[in-house]
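Handoff note, outgoing to incoming analyst
You'll be picking up this chain. Sequence as last confirmed:
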Amino acid sequence: MPPAVKWTEKYRPDTLKQVLGNGKAIDELRAWAESWERGRPITGAAILYGPAGTGKTSAALALARELDWDYIEMNASDARTAGMIEKIAGPASRSMTFSGKLRLVILDEADNLHGSADRGGAAAMLRLVRDTRQPVLLIANEYYEIEKPLRDAAKGIQFRSVRSTTIAQALREICRAEGVDCDPDALMMIAERAGGDMRSGVNDLQAAAQGQTAIRPEDVATAERDVKSSIFRVLEVIFKGNSAQEALQASYALDESPEDLIGWVDENLPLAYKGEDLWRGYEQLARADVFLGRVRVRQNYGLWRYASFLMTGGVQAAKAAARHGYVAFRPPSRWRQMGQTRKARNIRDSAAKKIGRHCHVSAAFVRAELMGFIGLLLADKRKAIPLAAELELDADEIALLLGSTPSTKKVQNIFEGAMKLREAEEYQDIELSWAGRAQQPLGAAPVSSVREEGGAGRADAGQAQAGATEAVQASAEKAGKTEPPRVGAPATAAPVVVPQQEEAPAAGGTEGGGPAQPRKRGRPKKAEGEGRAERKAPAAGEKKQKSLFDF
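Most recent structure output, in case you need it:
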């Protein structure tokens, strides 16, 4: 029996007109695609964002089919590391097709890049969007989970939740195509319980119609879904609602901690309230912040419920009259500022760790007390290069300590000088280590004849090596004759002992022809006159002093 085909795939839209519920988003997407067709694209990429099941992926695929574009898709099931994106999506975004038509590059779940599986994926996506020669569509559920540079480089197109009546209309068309008699109340029940998710509504309909020819309200067994609420929807309820309990209940479905929610309310309170309402709203918000402070100090998370009620229901009840009209809610500015200064803070922490490691203090103490002092030392031309080399500072860290930018000539000179100084020190360390430990090859000059450039360390090593050779040779001479060590042989090699043989008679023996006296062992003594002559002999190249009796 062949497996059942999912209705979500079977009835996926083939054209943009068949995508229901987001007419404005479809018009923006079509205009963006037509600009690519004309050869003057609005942006290289567009971001389709909104709740799950609202037709973002279906719209992207329908666009490719309608315009007869080739397309390539990467989703969460694929490894989206920097290497994989550069290997697959990168060439696809920069090369043309054989037919000469455009190729649509679809990157699904662009807001869900995390962990080791997707390491470097966000940076690779940004490079792809900036260098693309083909249209690119990024699909995401949470727009603000995408990094700001990537959001700025692409056009944002928002998809909203689909109305229940629109979902019921689509379900009715599916029932007609499948030949299933479905009660209108049952269809409306499925549509309302889908929570604005078209894909969930179609899946629920298929589950209810499995093996049935008719669907009645009692056949619908699905319950209402626990749909994650949007922060903007919760803010609408807080600032424009009429019930404090309703505002509190709306926050329960929000996937935000009280610390994050109070930041959203604090940022948007001046946009929604004015005058006395604003003053009373901030009073309730300040009381909520007191409870959050007690939670941090006491670790008593039971106090969260009081803070949550004050920042939602308390702020909602602070207004004297109902407020209407459109308010452009925005994320907390503190988050934006922290994102903009993240790189600077990372550079500061890196420099503090390097300074603290050399000064044997903590990085926190360096940030509080020593950063300015090190900056003054770097300002001195004589001390800047040796200090930067000792601390192993890079160009960004030097610029931070000097209060300058990495591209200035002063910072570049200090950094390049420090790099050359570190390379010279490393080369010298390698030379000293090699001369002190490596053995000389056969036939090479003795260690004591090392070049003077090698330093005193290498000369000392040669003297110690020669002394060890003489000591071993002297100890071996006690047992027998030794063969003199070969030139270039290792200093620690044992001398070759020559066995004793019978002494031959001396040429100048006694007159009676008797046996000559045996020669004594060891080095023969020099004659008395010969020793004095050697001591008095002038060195090579030295002039001999004339005596008074030399005429």
